[in-house]
């Protein structure tokens, strides 16, 4: 039986919107243990959840997430099985995600880095699994 969910629910999206970070836990190649547990910034755009790797495509959790495409995330006090996809970039989508980062993290010292080219290139689509 396929239990793949393609969309987050409204309540889950509200949870993402109302929390500043999620904990990213991509699997190791064994698909049973996690590469690492990293608190990361996330944004919601058009009903989808996105996160960017601080060190671009060399971010350890980003590399594991794109290699395994699966793992888990925690946000607030809730845990979710997740799947990960590298974003298919377009000027429009990149601009929307950048605008969401600016709105959510306005005034944060790390914001300029998160909207720079490296992290923008390493944008991950976070989906329920």
How would you summarize what this structure contains?
The protein is an alpha+beta fold and 129 residues long. It has helices spanning 10-17, 60-68, 91-104, 111-114, 117-121; strands at 21-26, 38-45, 48-52, 70-75, 78-86, 123-128. It contains five helices and six strands.
Q: What's the alpha carbon Rg, rounded to whole Å?
A: 14 Å
Number of helices: 5
Please bin the fraction of helical residues. Answer: 25-40%
Largest sheet: 6 strands, antiparallel, barrel
Helices and strands, in N-to-C order? Answer: HEEEHEEHHHE
Mean pLDDT: 93
| Strand percent estimate | 25-35%
End-to-end separation in angstroms reads 13 Å
Strand arrangement, major sheet:
1-2-3-6-5-4
How many runs of DSSP E, i.e. beta strands?
6
- Uncertain stretches: none
Category from helices, strands and their pairing: alpha+beta
Shape: globular
Characterization of this structure:
With 129 residues, this protein is an alpha+beta fold. Helices cover 31% and strands 31% of the residues. The protein has 5 helices and 6 strands, in the order H-E-E-E-H-E-E-H-H-H-E. A 6-stranded antiparallel beta barrel has the order 1-2-3-6-5-4. A hairpin with a 2-residue loop joins strand 4 (70-75) and strand 5 (78-86). The longest helix has 14 residues, at 91-104. The protein starts with 9 loop residues before the first helix and ends with a strand.
List the helices and strands and how they pair.
Layout (H helix, E strand, L loop, with lengths): L9 H8 L3 E6 L11 E8 L2 E5 L7 H9 L1 E6 L2 E9 L4 H14 L6 H4 L2 H5 L1 E6 L1
Antiparallel strand pairs: 1-2, 1-4, 2-3, 3-6, 4-5, 5-6
